[in-house]
Write a structure and sequence with these properties.
single chain; alpha/beta; 24 helices
Length: about 550
């Protein structure tokens, strides 16, 4: 499903398959060699044939690759995880595709929900790691490759070890950090990442939220190409908070062709099932719908869209501060796995709802240690990275980035015929992030120091100095007003009881915004339940 190669025209996402007799390669995305030369299908096939296992370490790009040599299939996924790749075994043959639900075309594949994945979804709002929501279906992690061969048990192997780039402490290296030099290195690397993704002469645009990251991408592009770049921002109406003023400042400063898109539930509810279908594995982040609606509007003008995804995971976003404070001043509760428990709680999704929300039958198949804590333990125990901030960044890159941030944007845009371009998530910037001193990522409670310094003369002070707020999708209010009847029909007591996963009485408490255990974060939890139930009906039933 959706596998193809990047042709030699320079377009980022041309489709097709290339074969010479038995050896066959299929690629989705773009690949360049170490010198920066874009590889066409014949070059990719030649390199894979000569060095199949070492190929991934010699190239860069946004890609998934399937290479058949006559006896086995080798699957590869780029270091950041820009695109997804799934595989399974249906008792007779190996299957692979860039969407997990595509594997269900095999009549031998059972449509069974993996119970542990339900707890993961409620905790993170996505399913992290190699597991998926479907039993027997595996996702290839970012920066990994796997060999599918009859008679063997596939074992994915990692090839992209960005943590090894972590620099030694200044006290050990004996050198003084030249921050200006690091700013220059960051600027050069970002410029290269943008250059590699430019779609030739084809028109493209940028999703401009008004935050630092997307504003920096707009500034970098406009510096290079001049004014007139199409940009889009989103808002939810005059009654809700928005960031339009910030986006307008950037659009005015760089002369973009700016458009503001208004989204209300009546616009997207008729398409919500389609949105969930395109998400593939369920993703419970409400920003998916704005991404889809923005892509619908942008598709009338462009086929490639840049975004600012990657700034927070790579360069010390504000959500790390809470974990750092707990790490340094965590009080007396510092028993085994205290960091894992603190991280799970900090996500502020529905971790503390699991025992209240799931039926006894569903709970019996869940282990907090196996399904939740064990996902995080390798990151906390691993060295490198040595620094705690870098451990948190590694989690955000390999879990949240590769299984939430990048897939949701890529799928929502691809559903509208648009290729997503995320230069801040480039593999070279990931390595640079771990090589630089941590104070260039987070200093005195100020995040993304390196980005703010690099664009100090290119962005208004209002952008550089404002704290990160994120796009506040007003789901808390929608479920009390515009989407009230929709969610109540979908999660009626009869429907919830029939599915047998969630307790109808607890779901009703959430629908009524009436729980006896605190504020409840009703909006995000109802959105996650709605997404999961739509996915279950579409994919499983």
């Amino acid at each position: 499903a959706s596998l193809g190669y990047c042709g030699e025209t320079g377009r980022p996402d041309q489709t097709g398959i290339y074969s010479t007799s038995t050896p066959t390669v299929a690629v989705r995305g773009w690949i360049r060699d170490a010198s920066g030369r874009r590889l066409g299908p014949s070059s990719i096939l030649r390199e894979l044939t000569s060095q199949p296992e070492g190929f991934a370490t010699q190239v860069r790009g946004d890609f998934v690759v399937a290479f058949f040599d006559g006896e086995s299939v080798r699957l590869l996924r780029d270091g950041a995880g820009m695109r997804t790749l799934f595989w399974a075994h249906d008792r007779e043959r190996f299957l692979f595709a860039s969407e997990s639900k595509a594997l269900l075309v095999s009549p031998r594949m059972r449509r069974v929900i993996r119970t542990g994945a339900i707890a993961q979804f409620l905790t993170f709002s996505f399913v992290p790691g190699a597991g998926t929501m479907l039993e027997g279906v595996s996702e290839l992690p970012a920066g990994h490759q796997v060999l599918l061969r009859h008679g063997t048990v596939p074992s994915p192997k990692r090839y992209f070890f960005f943590e090894h780039a972590e620099s030694a402490p200044e006290s050990q290296s004996g050198t003084v950090v030249d921050e200006d030099e690091w700013v220059e290195r960051f600027s050069r690397t970002l410029a290269s990442a943008i250059h590699d993704r430019l779609p030739g002469t084809a028109p493209f645009g940028v999703f401009l939220s008004g935050g630092l990251d997307s504003s920096a991408v707009v500034a970098a592009l406009a510096r290079r190409l001049g004014p007139g770049i199409p940009t889009w921002s989103i808002h939810f109406g005059p009654n809700y908070a928005n960031e339009l003023d910030y986006a307008r400042e950037v659009a005015t400063r760089w002369g973009t062709d700016h458009e503001e898109v208004h989204i209300e539930p009546r616009h997207f509810l008729p398409r919500l099932r389609r949105v969930v279908w395109h998400l593939d594995d369920p993703i419970g982040d409400p920003i998916t719908v704005p991404n889809f609606e923005l892509a619908r509007r942008a598709a009338a003008r462009v086929r490639w869209v840049f975004n600012g995804e990657g700034g927070a995971p790579l360069f010390g976003g504000p959500k790390n501060i809470q974990m750092l404070l707990r790490h340094w001043y965590g009080g007396i509760d510092r028993g085994p796995r205290f960091r894992e428990r603190a991280y799970l709680t900090s996500y502020r999704r529905a971790f503390d709802e699991i025992s209240r929300l799931l039926t006894p039958e569903a709970l019996s198949g869940i282990s907090y240690e196996r399904d939740l804590e064990a996902v995080l333990t390798p990151f906390f125990d691993s060295e490198p990275p040595r620094l705690f901030l870098n451990k948190l960044c590694a989690i955000n890159i390999r879990l949240k980035g590769a299984h939430l941030i990048l897939p949701k944007v890529e799928r929502m845009l691809a559903a509208n015929g648009i290729t997503s371009l995320s230069p801040l998530f480039d593999s070279r910037l990931i390595e640079l992030s771990f090589a630089m001193p941590p104070t260039l990522k987070l200093r005195g409670g100020i995040e993304k120091v390196i980005i703010k310094r690099a664009f100090a003369d290119a962005l208004p002070d209002s952008i550089l100095q404002r704290p990160k707020s994120g796009m506040r999708v007003p789901v808390h209010y929608w479920f009390r007003k515009e989407t009230r009847s929709y969610i109540r029909r979908l999660l009626s007591p009869r429907a919830v009881a029939r599915a047998g996963i969630f307790r109808p009485e607890r779901v009703k408490q959430l629908l009524d915004y009436n729980t006896d255990d605190g504020a409840g974060r009703y909006g995000i939890r109802l959105w996650m339940l709605m997404t999961f139930e739509l996915w279950r009906r579409i994919v499983v039933e």
